[in-house]
Amino acid sequence: MAALPEALNINEMKEKIEAILAEIESLACKTENEIEEARVRLLGKKGKITGLFEEFRTVPAEQKREFGQKLNQLKNAATAKIESLKDSLQESGASAASFDVTKPGDSFKLGSRHPVSIVREEIVEIFRKFGYDVAEGPEIEDDWHVFEALNFPPEHPARDMQDTFFISSSANSILLRTHTSSVQVRAMEKLPLPIRIICPGRVFRNEAISARAHCIFHQVEGLYIDENVTFADMKQAILLFAREMFGAESQIRMRPSYFPFTEPSAEVDVSCNICHGKGCNICKGTGWLEIMGCGMVDPNVLEASGIDSKKYSGFAFGMGIERIAMLKWQVKDLRNYFENDLRFLREFETFI
Ligand code: PHE
């Protein structure tokens, strides 16, 4: 049997109990680790209180009762303190993350896409399905790509069809593109044949701003060049586009027109999707809505970009995005698209 520790000085033991009680009272732990350390220090196998229980064995029999009670109180006080420290730590942890993850979140207002972007994407997607690639080019252009290469010789009256913003008017003027046909010229100059592209982009014309005209607007133009491309191919491509865009029942009609870069040229109308041809104020009683210009690429244009016009032929078409959006949503005033009035823009929130 192990030898008992030497008989204790009773006073010394009393002092130890007092000191440990004071320590328990002043315990302040901030972390779980600190609490565990305090528990081990007091109640662990080699802890202070456990040590006192060892010493208790040497207490004279007549004092055992008194000391026994004191020691038990000490142990209970230590255990209770440790528990309460644990509880309060848990509570404070809970309050730091005191949100209920099952509650519905606070909603905040999302921005929405601009109607011009929505329609541009829709047009691009339709032509992508038909196998067209997207081509882009600069907004600040030279005379060659906007006019000259598109069969607008200098002094040609057709230049007046598109009032131009000039940046510099030297021999080869720098200007803001008036149509994205300039991107088609750039494509013809550098892409291998066959070419099948659409060119969405912003264009600029020096026009008085009104409900029906603006100095900035957006276009999507298309170009297809290959061997044996015919007017019938163009008509079919535009009919399929119109049916995707305006509904499967849509019809198109073509009216002869003039563009310097296409021959023959046409304006395309789609049957009015509001009155279905009966005549309403959107189609001004005609049953038809004008949606784009088109035509077979003029051989001069092919040759200007180094394409053999004996071997290749192609068609081109171009439409204004704002115009298509106006027809789609019956927006009566073009200026709405540029003024960023939130009351207008929020009407398109559902189209995100
Ligand atoms: N570039 C013409 C315009 O801006 C549209 C168009 C493109 C017409 C291609 C015919 C062929 O008005």
Task: Tell me about the largest β-sheet.
Answer: 7 strands, mixed
Helices, by number, come to 12
Q: What is the average of the pLDDT values?
A: 89
What's the alpha carbon Rg, rounded to whole Å? 43 Å
Biggest sheet: strands side by side, in what order? 1-5-6-10-9-8-7
Low-confidence stretches: none
Task: Give the distinct bound molecules.
Answer: phenylalanine
DSSP E strands, number: 10
Percent strand equals 15-25%
Overall 3D shape: rod-shaped
Helix content: 40-55%
* Order of SSEs: HHHHHEEHEEHEEHEEEHEHHH
Q: Tell me the structural class.
A: alpha+beta
Distance between the termini: 85 Å
Description:
- With 352 residues, the protein is an alpha+beta fold.
- It contains 12 helices and 10 strands.
- It has helices at residues 10-26, 32-43, 48-56, 61-96, 115-129, 143-146, 181-190, 231-246, 299-304, 321-329, 336-339, 342-345, and strands spanning 133-134, 140-142, 166-168, 174-176, 195-204, 216-227, 252-259, 262-271, 288-297, 312-320.
- It has a 7-stranded mixed beta sheet, with helices on both faces. Strands 2-4-3 form a 3-stranded antiparallel beta sheet.
- The longest helix has 36 residues, at 61-96.
- It is rod-shaped and about 125 Å long.
- The model has no long low-confidence stretch (mean pLDDT 89).
- Bound molecules: phenylalanine.
- Phenylalanine (PHE) binds next to strand 9 and strand 10.
- Phenylalanine is lined by residues 179, 181, 221, 259, 262, 293-295, 316-318.
